[in-house]
Amino acid sequence: MIRFENVTKRYPDGTTAVHDLSLEVAEGELVTLVGPSGCGKTTTMKMVNRLIEPSSGRILLDGEDISAVDPVELRRRIGYVIQQVGLFPHKTVLENTATVPYLLGWSKAERRERAAELLQLVGLDPARYGDRYPDQLSGGQRQRVGVARALAADPPVLLMDEPFGAVDPVVREHLQTEFLKLQSTLHKTVLFVTHDIEEAVRLGDRIAVYGDGRIEQFDPPAKVLGAPATPYVADFVGADRGLKRLSVTPIERGDLEAPPVVHLDDPLDKARARMRADGARWAVVLDDADELHGWLSAEAAGATGGDGAEGATAQDETAAPVTVADHARRMEAWLPLGAPLKQAFSSMLQHDAGWIAVLDEADRFVGVLTPSRLHEALRRSIDADERDVSRGEVELETVADA
Ligand SMILES: Nc1ncnc2c1ncn2[C@@H]1O[C@H](COP(=O)(O)OP(=O)(O)O)[C@@H](O)[C@H]1O
Ligand SMILES: [Mg+2]
After folding, report:
1. Ligand number, closest to the Cα atom of 161
2. Ligand 1 pocket, 41 CB below 6 A?
3. Which residue has its alpha carbon closest to ligand 1 atom 27?
4. At what angle do helices 169-186 and 139-151 cross, to 10 degrees?
5. Three-class SS state of 391
6. Is 11 in the pocket of ligand 1 (CB under 6 A)?
7. pLDDT-above-90 percentage for the chain
């Protein structure tokens, strides 16, 4: 959709801001361009809407060489959001949002309707905010108006140059979340510039790591974090890249452990026998709808002692038979397959649990993730990325059990 072919930009003073750049952003893809200040990100972006002309090479939009397209016409196909937002201070939020429809000659009624729809889309109530002026909004709200305005004429392409750079971290995270939600329905082709690796990782389908006008690595976030292509990239993504990577590595079936599964209404001796046979210290307990109820420890089931059943398991012949339900503990923490490992980790901490149940799309229990399985999943996925194979194909050398 956006294709750079050997693009170089040399400024008149001799600064080469972009060196021989070749890069392709696929239709509907969100590519983040990340790198330190002064590495050529803005220059790259401005060449796409012809605010800056390349010194050599060419840029194609949907297969068409943009140097042959009238810049004004070109910009109507490209939404542009920048950090300073650039809202017109003397125009209302509705008018600002409708800037492009206005230029396109839409009627006043059409413009208002479209602007209201967009404000709603970015989470601003048009009735409440539509008639305000930009200086009556918070930084985060202004940024939302900037996004709404860029989307007004429904352009297929969005260029975003550090759009959330000026707001505080909490608001930024909100804006990122909202933008991801928006993108999951709009599927724009987006080139998103940031100097913040966290933002790049969170938003990008792929990340282009820039160093001094050149791409050092162009890969999905997990791969950039797990297998940095150069020492520069490793340094840029930071020493805590393993931790960052947890948030972009999904839980897969192969990562899970399969503890014994028992049901609430199973007789306790049957559960005990299962656990003994497996040498398991605990079992997952499901209810009669096969939904997660919690767990049963081997101790509570009396499966730890010798042959003689004791304590909890001693049964009074006259009483109702003891079932799993009598000794199971509640534990309702679970995650869907595909959730990031980081969520599993934080869920374990939150519930002070040594495992977390994982359910499939139909909410059926598939297995559990334990801290050691989580660690393995991370190592496996890093290794898989380094070798360009799938995670399931990786055989781990086990660190000797102490
Ligand atoms: N109009 C210009 N004339 C000369 N040099 C420029 C101009 N604009 C940017 N530069 C230089 O080009 C390099 C890349 O700038 P820029 O694309 O703005 O980087 P970034 O957006 O990554 O911070 C920097 O060294 C900057 O000083
Ligand atoms: Mg810049």
Report:
1. 2
2. yes
3. 38
4. 20
5. helix
6. yes
7. 62
Q: Of the ligands numbered here, which is closest to the C-alpha atom of 11?
A: 1
Q: Nearest Cα to 160, choosing from 172, 150, 152, 169?
A: 150
Domain end residue (candidates: 248, 268, 300):
248
Distance from the alpha carbon of residue 348 to the mean position of ligand 2, in angstroms: 40
- Strands 206-211, 214-219: parallel, antiparallel or unpaired by DSSP? antiparallel
Asked whether 43 lines ligand 1 (CB < 6 A), one says yes
DSSP state letters, 179-207: HHHHHHHH--EEEEEES-HHHHHHH-SEE
Q: How much distance in Å is there from the Cα of 159 to the middle of ligand 1? A: 17
Expressed in angstroms and rounded, the spacing between residue 37 Cα and the centre of ligand 2 is: 7
Identify whether 396 is part of a domain: no
Q: Which domain covers residue 336, as residue numbers? A: 253-380
- Mean per-residue pLDDT over the chain, rounded: 89
Residue 258, helix vs strand vs coil = coil
Indicate whether residue 17 lines ligand 1 (CB < 6 A): yes
Residues 120-173 have pLDDT tens digits of: 988 899 999 999 999 999 888 998 899 999 998 889 999 999 988 878 888 888
Rounded CA-CA distance 263/60 in Å is: 60
Residues 129 and 227 in one domain: yes
Q: Comparing 60 with 166, which gets the higher pLDDT?
A: 60
Q: Are 381 and 249 in contact (CB under 8 A)?
A: yes
Same-domain check for residues 48 and 100:
yes
Q: Is 39 near ligand 1, meaning CB less than 6 Å away? A: yes
- pLDDT tens for each residue of 254-290: 999 999 999 999 999 999 999 999 999 999 999 988 8
Of all protein residues, the one whose alpha carbon is nearest to atom 7 of ligand 1 is 11
Taking CA atoms only, the protein residue closest to ligand 1 atom 25 is 38
Whole-number pLDDT of residue 391: 81
Q: What is the pTM of this model?
A: 0.79
Give the list of residues 6+ apart from residue 113 with CB closer than 8 angstroms, or none: none
Distance of CA 37 from the midpoint of ligand 1 (Å): 9
**Cα 71 from Cα 149, distance rounded (Å):** 19
Nearest one of 264, 259, 326 to 291, comparing CA atoms: 264
**Residue 394 within a domain:** no
Are residues 68 and 161 both part of a single domain?
yes
